[in-house]
Here is the input.
Amino acid sequence: MRYSLSNIINKPLEVVVEKFKEPEGAKEWMPGLQTIEPISGEPLAVGSKTNFTFLHKNKEMKIEEIVLEQDLPNSVKFGYKSSMGYNEVEMRFRKISENETEQVNESYFELKGFMSIMGFLFKGMFKKQTVTYMEGFKNYCEK
Here is the structure.
């Protein structure tokens, strides 16, 4: 499953990228994120790994992140492993004007088990979650 979403953040590219790079910032814009635990490497360096723990509907979910590519301020690509499968997210940022930045999220999922059967039906749910995170990040940048 693949999809692409975008939005406009009303802040300069430099501000948006600095907010994106804040180590604990994701807790501000990712609902349910409880802990961020670096495993190896420098934050946002290619090959670095981090564990994320989310609380969703009173259930704990762990996700391992690895940085696959990094070309900030332009883009960064992550790989995520969880009990549901594997996904990749490429986040791109593009200066539109002095005070506007386009954020583009390209997502790819390889689901396993029950989710591989039901994934097609849940595509809307995955997109909705991505929109929630993107809107949260936009609000975090603009406040």
In short: The radius of gyration is 15 Å.
